[in-house]
Amino acid sequence: MVLLLSSFSTPKDKKQTLLIQNQTTSKEATYLEKIDNFSLQEFDAKAQLSHLVKAKSYFSFKNSPALLIEPEVIFYDEKGLKDYVLNSKRAHYTDSGEIKFKGEVGVQSSNGLSHKINTEELLVGIKTSDLISKKPVTYLGENIKIIAQGMHMYAKDDTMKLTGYTKINQDSGQQILTKDLYIDQSKGQKYYYSNNKTTYLTKKNKIYASGVDMDRQKQVIQLLGKVKIVQDSGSEINTKNLTIDQSNGLEVYRTKEKIHYQSNIADIHAFGMNYDVTEQKIKLTGGVVGRYE
What we know:
Layout: E1 2-4, E2 7-9, E3 33-43, E4 49-60, E5 66-69, E6 72-76, E7 82-87, E8 90-93, E9 99-109, E10 114-124, E11 130-133, E12 137-141, E13 144-148, E14 150-154, E15 159-170, E16 175-184, E17 191-194, E18 198-201, E19 205-209, E20 211-215, E21 220-231, E22 236-245, E23 252-255, E24 259-262, E25 266-270, E26 273-276, E27 281-284, E28 289-292
Antiparallel strand pairs: 1-3, 2-3, 3-4, 4-5, 4-6, 5-8, 6-7, 7-9, 8-9, 9-10, 10-11, 10-12, 11-14, 12-13, 13-15, 14-15, 15-16, 16-17, 16-18, 17-20, 18-19, 19-21, 20-21, 21-22, 22-23, 22-24, 23-26, 24-25, 25-28, 26-27
């Protein structure tokens, strides 16, 4: 461990009150030591630099964790190159060496991927390199916002689990409700998936499924297992393994599985479907059998 100091000061009476641009609470008002341009290097067992902790200011307290203003944590790989970088407006630095970020946290990976995570408290495990929050989390991705009850992120692998009940809001208006969502952005992919019951909501339809796979690069969603589509007209479509194509601004449902379409005037069975939601056109294929009233 190497501590690099630019400047420091200690209040004479140890009861000096400090208001740090409204960053501190009443419990944090009395500090023991202040260090500007704080910098701390830590090395692993092989004497290789593992991470660097920097902050605009560092404040230590008698019975509370130290406070970091505008902290930045840089992790390094085995070759000594930057692996990923974390930053926020403030954080607490514990005696055990863990860092608890507060509010919005930015995560920048070496492969160019970036994440924005907003939560009351995000714990950075210095030894494990994991990011953990047991508080409600808002994850801001590309054209998407995800709200969950917690998070466990394996930052070096660019993988994450958003825990508990999870709501996915797409900028195009669709909403997905599920539980325990996994996000895999390793090797440049953008893959989200959950094996829990899932509801997909649009202005025209509600779709119920047993799970969801999302390829954000191809803009394709797979609703897994038994699928039930309820249209705003009251008609129902029962099938399996539905593909939702959102590429190029589309909203098209496709499947080659058995189809059972029911409305007030029709009861139809088929072996495939192409449903253009924008045009409100449904094409049933493969031995269509039905009756009309």
